Amino acid sequence: MKLYTKTGDSGTTSLIGGKRVSKADWRVCAYGSVDELNSALGMLRAKLTDSSEKAMIFEIQNSLFSVGVLLATPSGADFPKKFEFKENWLNFLEENIDEMQNKLPEIKNFIIYGENELSALCHFCRSVARRVERDIVFLHEKEKIDENLIKYINRLSDFLFTFARYLSTKEKNIDFFWKKDIVI
């Protein structure tokens, strides 16, 4: 079987269930952004050396594939129930946030990113997650989707912020904070 089908050459693609839409459709943009986030997380996972941290990111990547499937399935499309949102995805993120947060010093100001490569890459993934969240919210305003998807991506960006700080602290780096009184 050939990889290319030529069915998208006119700028359209199929959603789950067969409906054809523009590749600029907000639903396509939303699941495309999820794919981009998953790729960025793959770069992060490839750089990690701790097997439990790699497994944690892999678990998130696996959940994101399901999020993509949910976003690619329009309302009314017949699709197996196994692709419904799973509450344990949120629980997984929250439990890991809490565990890492307990090991971190409290902060009261904005962080300047880039103290080490892993932390900076994690912040990059977090900023992509924020864009994914905006894309999903915009889609939700146009066509109702499961609001849990918004919660999940919001929590994922919280997780990535915490994980970035955790990785920085683990490498004995200190956080650098925004100094609002600096004038350039």
Global morphology: elongated
- How do the strands line up in the largest sheet? 1-2
Mean pLDDT: 86
| SS-based class | mainly alpha
Number of helices: 5
The proportion of residues in beta strands is 5-15%
Order of helices and strands: EEHHHEHHE
CA radius of gyration: 18 Å
Q: Can you tell me the CATH architecture? A: Up-down Bundle
- In the CATH scheme, the class would be Mainly Alpha
Tell me the helix content.
Answer: 55-70%
Uncertain regions spanning at least 5 consecutive residues? none
Largest sheet: 2 strands, antiparallel
**How many beta strands in the DSSP annotation?**
4
Number of domains: 1
CATH topology: Hypothetical Protein Ta1238, Chain: A
Task: Give a written overview of the molecule.
The radius of gyration is 18 Å and the shape is elongated. With 184 residues, the chain is mostly helical. The protein has helices at residues 26-47, 51-71, 87-101, 117-142, 148-170; strands at 12-14, 20-22, 111-112, 176-177. A hairpin with a 5-residue loop joins strand 1 and strand 2 (20-22). Helix 1 runs antiparallel to helix 4, helix 3 (87-101) packs parallel to helix 5 (148-170) and helix 4 runs antiparallel to helix 5. It has one domain (20-74, 83-94, 106-176): Cobalamin adenosyltransferase-like (Hypothetical Protein Ta1238, Chain: A, Up-down Bundle).
